[in-house]
Amino acid sequence: MRKHLIVAVAVVLLAPALLVPGLARALEITRVTSPGGIEAWLVEDHRNPILTLTFSFRGGESSDPAGKEGRARMVAGLLDEGAGDLDSIAFQKSLADNSISLGFRSRADRFNGSLTTLTETRDAAVELLRLAVSAPRFDDEPVARIRAQIEASLRRDLQQPRTIAGRAWWSANFPDHPYGRSGDGTLDSVAAITRDDLVGFVADTLARDSLLVSAVGDITAEELGVLLDQAFGALPATAAVAETLDRAPALQGETLVIETEIPQSVVTFGQPGLAREDPDWYAASLLNRVMAGGFGSRLTTEIREKRGLVYGVWAYLLPLDHAPLMMGGLATQNARVAESIDLVRQEWQRMAADGPTAEELETARTYTLGSFPLNLTDSDGVASILLSMQEGDLAIDYLDNRRALFEAVTLEDARRVARELYKPEALTVVVVGKPEGITPTRPAPGG
Amino acid sequence: MRIASAVSRLALVIAVAATVSVGLVSVGMSTGARAAVFEPKTFTLDNGLEVVVIENDRVPVVSHMVWYKVGSADEPRGKSGIAHFLEHLMFKGTETIEPGGFSDIIRAIGGRENAFTSYDYTGYYQNVAREDLGRMMELEADRMVNLRLTDELVAPELDVVLEERRSRVDNSPGSLHWEQVNAATYLSYPYRIPVIGWETEIRALTRQDALDFYEDWYAPNNAVLVVAGDVTVDEVRKLAERTYGVIPARPVPDRIALRGSEPPQLAARRVEGTNPRVDQPSWSRRWLAPGRVWGDAALISPLEVAAEILGGGSTSRLYRSLVIDQALAVSAGAGYSAGGLGPQGFVVYASPRADVSIADLEQAVDGELDHLLSEGVTDEEVASAITRMERAAIFARDDSLAPARLFGAELASGGTIADIEDWPERIAGVTPEAVNAALRAILVPQRSVTSILRPEPAS
To answer: Which residues on chain A are in Cβ contact (under 8 Å) with B104?
Structure first.
């Protein structure tokens, strides 16, 4: 963290020279450091009297103790249910009366929050945010209520074929690792979470040293500096989040089946991917467009357009902090799921063998570059890009260089990365349904 | 809570009408003259195409949408699903564009596209850089009149639609139950038929059915063009005249007459289902309420305020009483939107905690509703709801493209520009007396449809 001697707020303005004209205006990113040393990235925009703040801390569901899965999720549901002198009803009334949106969300390795407020109610919003992160109450009534809501949501989700397939995939591939245990929790684990567990998560996780903040909207750098100290200044300086170990998926090329009486089989598949900081990330990202970027992509063309096998088929890079992966899925009638999975493997094989064509690579590139501004049409979109840049440890001028990074990917690079990345023999597939013509290679976990 | 269903070509489901117009449209503070919400510019081409432009230069992109005033409620008897199937087939090429060719062009320029079908409308859109707007308008105008379909293209797409139905409905106990409830809600009005269609009828749809529906309804005088984003009305007018403007108008059927009306409901209805794939029970009740054409329009704004008081979030009456104070439910709320031509629903819903029976939950909801109807809402509740609803408009202006959807949905389902732009003024004028009168007019026991979905009892 940089030190500042006299000025209350240090401002580094980076003119995004290489962005298309007009886009530059939307994305003048300012690095703001508060008097207390808290940093945020800001895009000032005064056209509407709205401020959007998004932030995250390191440490999320992967730090839930075994048997207490769902702890981070439950904290996320409870931070706005009473804090400081305000009980749950008073806190929620203050949010509603002032039209303030304040919410929290747990992820695998981080814990996120977001605040949206009108300028006229900003002081109240910042005070509610301060209370939520530094003085949550965890009173009995809201704890019981949110626990009941999470349990109801689990009873729904655990009947969803997609949830069942996903949980089986993760559990089979990450035994004895936090990624193998669902951060959403189970009925047993959520019932076992105590108030002390919730207080402990807050004490260990919500600290200034891992806090990343982005702000978009009707606020100046100076005002934001003051706000940051008000909102987050009371947090402890350092977090105490245990390190999660890096881990590769345990299975290679296995097929698991969970028999369920449904007319359509739901499939999740995955294999090792590559990390966000890998220099081949940009090539891999273009390859994924070629493979699974909606209409015109290989999977959609072969499986949906030509054969009518699915409504949706998808694949994506998932660069988790401790296990970079490439995941995907589809859903199709039980009689044709075997054919659909074979087609995915064939496309994997073809990509590994030949890579993309020059034309496919170019289309993926022009799409990736051209579509970026569509993420910036509202404050939430801009704020979440600023936050994910910080989470990915990208430089504040990354967007100036983004075009060049994608333009530097040659057809040879793409072919090499395709060969290294796409491993049809490594794809592990989980099918939920009554699939015909599929023989599982091993039993599904717990089933 | 699903209040209206919409079906789209890819993953996108346009937000249910209720959330679109209850939450999003409003402006200004509660004193003095109110500014309009989005200040759209409008004009109509000689061929009858209505055009709405919402200028916003936040980012150099635009949303280009064409909304046809035809949806699943306008399908011929026995052809359910044809509106949605045609929506899929509109991507299969024209006299001059290869199948998938329009999508290829969009992808190469980094645009995003989708399409969606609801009871009252069918919409197509592309979000692209502003310099690509003209090309999008040429291509969208082209497929308004030049669609070409072959059996080779139609057959696999029918399979795609059947998979879509399996994903959305057949694999989902909640959606299957909802179809039953919805069919029981309407005696006659075509909203009783699911947007995606009944499976047996989808299977029988043909290329000719799609072309017939296209010929009947897809015409410039039966469409609304909406462009939002970094563009001016003058630019849009020039492009629209050159592209859509050359398409001749032609007669389209009178859909309001074809749909018929909904006879009065004289007896309460209950639809109770069980399913082995349900673990968390749910309960809801619906009463028919005014839409843009059906029902008493004077009740609309008071009912919108009533829904906010009764069920808008965790400070609402139902949440406070059932979820917090009595600890009977995990969720509870209410919803209403007038966005739609025909009879809409005023809905109240709740889902019980693990140790609470549906019967006890229903009794508690009845208690809240009885109390509401006998004692009425308070001045403070109304004032506070109005403030929240008015402030929502400022937030609605944040997204430079989203207003295109609001205007398209409103104009394609019987509404007007004023229904959006004057909404804050109408909401601000709602009195507690009007809310109470509207609730008493609509929440009549014999006109209710109650839905229960519970786990299959252990055998």
So the answer is: 295-296, 363
